[in-house]
Amino acid sequence: MTCNDCLEHVAGLAYGKLDERTAADVRVHLAACAACSRQFETLGLTLEALERLPSAPPSHRMRARLMGDIEAEKLDLQGRAGWAASIRSSAERRPASWLAPLLQAIAACALLAVGFLAGERTAGERAATERRLADLGAKVDTMGMLVEQSVLQKRDTVDRLQAVLTVGSSKRPDERVINGLINSLAFDSSVNVRLNALNALYGHAGQEVVRAGVLACLPREPNPLVQVSMIDFLVAAKAHDAAPELRKLAEDAKADTDVRESARRAMDLL
Amino acid sequence: MPLPDHDLMLAVRDGDLDCMGELFERHHGPLYGYLSKLTGNRAAAQDLCQTVFQRMLKYRHTYRDEGNFAAWMYHLARRCASDHFRRASSAPAPMDPTDLEAHADDAVGADEAAASKDDHALLHRALGRLDRADREVLLLSRLQELSFAEVAGILECSVGAARVRAHRALHSLRDHYFKLQKDPLT
């Protein structure tokens, strides 16, 4: 091997990327040639220095964010609709203590509508009223769709946060709004959005579907801050059926210390 | 015995997303180190590293049976870094104060103040003096899990071209580094 041949391969040897035969040939030449040996030595020193070059450790938030992304992707796989349906059906399987007031409310609305329509004096007025009611219904549907789209589909965190805050300030949210908030709590990759969705649900903690939704989200939640907030929510909502899940968390050695402590305290309070 | 990266990634592709957590634990440190040295910017490296893992998750179905995980990961990293450099060239990026040392020679008149005999700072400066393509091929070639053929695949060039570029980049870094060691004010 000539010096030119050797210099062609010397960087490859320093990188550790030569095949064994070529590497052996280069080494034989290096042992006999001081000039080429010096080239190899300085290249090796440079690569060693590069290996030693420290880079600050990446932040722990990166791990938390990725775990959030993985969870969101898993939930996507399972299917949002199927998951939402399972929450609803689990809520419906419970003793229907809420059913009577709901039926009463529906009956009251029906009576109101019948009275309203009966009060109209002419066919023309009735038609106009029906049109107004239909318009109103369409607006409510559109609002619901907008809420769903803004909460679930916006990719930008600020937009999703804004949507959750707007939805949360609604004094009389419908079923779709509540579902949107529960979905955000379950699926959103941003801790801020999830916390604000939970805050928005506080006003509706009396609803069985809300309590069931938060309880279903608790074991999926990766962030200790949100976990503790969920536990506080379940205590505030007097969710006595949360006890088994709280016990699991309290006894989970891998769970965050604050989370375990909150779960124990919540069990005592409930 | 732990599963090889390739098997873990196949499992992710087939729906076992928890395996991505293990791949993250194994590779986020070296990947972050690569991106950090390539960009010279800690915050950007952090964002890019995060994006690479997000893309792995998103494009998991494109991972092939005969694939090499490390080569695939660095291929995605290269794409993310290219996007970053394209954005950075069209808008001035805020400077991370902790990275000033790495960019000391970018600032006119700041050479003297930033000149240091500290070896790491010198090497940072030497790296900063390579053009991006040279820095990229050098940082990829030093990774033991990648062959020149795989580096060539990532850089989308021939194996011969990758080898020549890697040789040239290492010689160039060595020259800058030794020159700075002799005279840090150059």
Query: Rounded to an integer, what's the Rg of chain B over CA atoms?
Result: 18 Å
Shape, per Cα inertia axes of chain A? elongated
Largest interface: A-B, 33 and 41 residues
Order of helices and strands of chain A: HHHHHHHHHHHHHH
Q: Care to count the β-strands of chain A?
A: 0
CATH architecture assignment name of the largest domain in chain B: Orthogonal Bundle
Describe this structure as you would to a colleague.
The complex is a heterodimer of chains A (270) and B (186). With 270 residues, chain A is mostly helical. Chain A has a domain of 44 residues. Chain A is built from 14 helices and no strands. Chain A is elongated and about 105 Å long. The N and C termini of chain A lie far apart (83 Å). About 6% of the residues of chain A have low confidence. Chain B is mainly α. Chain B folds into two domains: 94 residues, Orthogonal Bundle (Rna Polymerase Sigma Factor, Chain: A); 92 residues, Arc Repressor Mutant, subunit A (Orthogonal Bundle). In chain B, helix 7 crosses helix 9. The termini of chain B are far apart. The relative contact order of chain B is 0.11. At the A-B interface, helix 1, helix 3 and helix 4 of A face helix 2, helix 3, helix 6 and helix 9 of B.
Please name the defining characteristics of this protein.
heterodimer, A: 270 residues, mainly alpha, elongated, B: 186 residues, Rna Polymerase Sigma Factor, Chain: A, Arc Repressor Mutant, subunit A, 9 helices, 68% helix
Please outline what is shown here.
The complex is a heterodimer of chains A (270) and B (186). Chain A has helices at residues 3-15, 20-32, 34-52, 60-78, 80-93, 99-118, 123-153, 157-168, 175-187, 191-201, 208-217, 224-236, 243-251, 257-269.
